[in-house]
TrEMBL record:
Keywords: ATP-binding, Nucleotide-binding. It comes from the Bacteria. Transmembrane segments: none annotated. Residues 15-249 form the ABC transporter domain. This is ABC transporter ATP-binding protein. GO terms for molecular function: ATP binding; ATP hydrolysis activity. SUPFAM superfamilies: P-loop containing nucleoside triphosphate hydrolases. Gene3D superfamilies: P-loop containing nucleotide triphosphate hydrolases (3.40.50.300). PROSITE patterns: ABC_TRANSPORTER_1, ABC_TRANSPORTER_2. InterPro entries: AAA+_ATPase (IPR003593), ABC_transporter-like_ATP-bd (IPR003439), ABC_transporter-like_CS (IPR017871), P-loop_NTPase (IPR027417).
Amino acid sequence: MNDLLNHTSDVVITQNLRQVFRAENKKMPDICALQDLNIQIRSGQLTALVGPDGAGKTTFLRLIAGLYQPTSGSLQVLGIDICQNPQAVQNRISYMPQRFGLYEDLTVQENLDLYADLHGVPLEIRKQRFARLLEITDLSKFTQRPAGNLSGGMKQKLGLACTLVRSPELLLLDEPSVGVDPLSRRDLWLIIEQLVKEENLSVIISTAYMDEAERCAEVYVMYDGKILQQGTPQYLSEQVRGLTWQVKPPE
């Protein structure tokens, strides 16, 4: 087996990963969402996928989560071939999409209980785990409030807590700060950074905001299904220092 695929310090490894969506109408061209990605994402750090809408960020996260089968190439997550055993990957990760499925008629606590049941979290560890999640999300005072009565920022915090009830090894977050107020956005990032630092959690987050990417250890700049550049925020800043772009608005 290729030595690259045995690199145990990486949570995600891709080789020539390609994702093509076939057009339903034969007269329309197929859509190539990802084009031959070669990526190694290290464990225990916060990694950003940054780019505009349509760059391929969500498609890549869904591939990592085992929701799509790659068209070609290879993808290993936590040392597991996603094509061979997607369920084994899904048992060890958590994925929070842009529209997370909270049950708005249920209270905060009932949502946590439900997701703990779905993920088979043992009863004997739930109390401690719930206390930890409610503390870091600052939802301890709202356990009996229906999720539908929470603010947008608080709903995102609850969604994050629900994805973490199973104590995943890898957390995937798809633009979690979209649509929340600036204060809640700041709080979300503080929570994520705390989890990486204190629990050594590996987190891959997609964002369209460069100021969010600057908070990450490693950044992958995506556009049109390709990786344009990668490196630390400091490295990427140095690459564009002194450059000026002139952009003409559409007519």
